[in-house]
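re: that chain from earlier
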Amino acid sequence: MKKKTLFSLLLKYKYSFLAGLLALSLVDICQLSIPLIIQKVVDALTLEGAGVGDISKYGLILLFIAFAMSVFRFFWRYFIMGAARRIEQSLRNEFFSHLQSLHFDFFSQRKVGDLMAHTVNDIETLKFACGLGILIAYDGIFLLVFIFGAMLYISPELTLYAFIPFPILGFLILKFGRMIEQRFQKVQDAFSGLTESARASISGIKVVKAYVREGEEVKDFESSSAAYLDRNLRLIRIWGVYQPVITYLAALATVIFLWLGGIDTITLNITLGDFAAVLLYLTMLAWPMMAMGWAVDIIKRGNASLNRINEILLVTPPSPAEPGAVDLKIEGTIELKDLSFSYHGARVLKNVSLRIPAGAAVGFTGATGSGKSTIFQLLTRVEEPPENTIFVDGVDVRKIKRDSLSEGIVYVPQETTVFSGTVRDNISFMNPGLTESDVESAARVAEIYDEIMDFPGGFDARVGERGLSLSGGQRQRIGLARAVLLKPGVLILDDVFSSLDLKTESMVLRNLRKEMKGRTLIAISSRVPSISGFDYIAVFDNGRLVEYGSHSELMFENGIYAGLYKIQSFA
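^ sequence. v structure.
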């Protein structure tokens, strides 16, 4: 993806911007003509031979100009601000779509609050840069050029005197512009930290309350808030010097004109009408000078935000093109051949070999950190496995298209994500193709149907943000019901029964064995009795497969599995 610039964003809606800038130019031309008409009126009042008819004529012209300005102001607002809003929508959609395409590793290294700040605050700032920033910059430059042109036409000498402060103004705009961009980028970074502090505290509010950490959380948030305030105050100090200096330079140009222009008027080198017209133009000149400063501020802020957006957009997602990869209707045979894998330099799997036949129910157990979950992250290509080490239905998993793997192999993690919405929405996961009976059937398999019916509203009950109104066991079973509805060839459960009592767990497993008949079911569990009825059990220790077989075979061997089973069965 190419790096985005403000120009590339504007180019996408160039016709809308051109129409808006044309309307703005017509407004400015109308506005710039007013001093020339005032000049005529003043001269008509001070020179002999003027009549009431002349004054009335100029009054009607001014009335027409005011009407035309009102009409054209509507059009520049519609086209320019409308285009800025469309840029905002397009960029936000593109940014969110890009986030969805990135690898899991990216999200393990970035904070959610930071990404939220990019998605909302930075893109909002870009909208202002593309709308208000471009509008003010163009308006300032247009007025500046035409005001100087009109002043030169009336009195070149006075205009050159009034122009004296402008080289200083150009230097200040460049100098302050760089400082504003740098400091605003730090403001946005601090805002990301503040957003993440609030998100982390609110999303973990149950833990905060349970451990009576409210005071500490408030202190942490106040610290992030103070850092955000400090960065803003540093920016405000720059802005506080910047705008008054520009205003002072505009006033200085007026003072120079009043002094020298007054002398020329008294000595009759120029008419009183000329003096009044140039004075009006100088009064108008205050706005474009301030506008240039304001525009630089807004555009530099937009550039700072765009740099932050580009930082994310330039992260390369996994290539959707998979040369040589095949579509595969997964039946469920899984084979590991001498699989070894290191994560961050630490060896987590060591020469693992096993075969799971299609339609089998296999339990995985072992100590925490023994490599069980890593196998299935490799199988589903969350992590890329070594070549020729993992096979699905006889095909190297690296040569199977990711879409085929996603459809055929469903992995349910221990930490189930529940989205804000209704119970039905969460089970169906917004799939409009599912019927009411499909959803209810999946809930029965997960042994949560009766509990759902006790909720106010049943399947239409709202579960709240991140499912906070549900227990851990209810969230796990809703996630399980969601997976069942996908009818995968391989269903992998990663300790999803940790929050369930043994009776409920036993019922869910019985239902799953029936539901998954003819398809492969794999359950990772630290509770050995839960998986004792499975066809095969794999026992891991320190990254190695140390035992593999049926319950009776492993009990006969009297190894790790037998010891765990005896301890947990009679505990």
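The longest strand covers residues 346-356.
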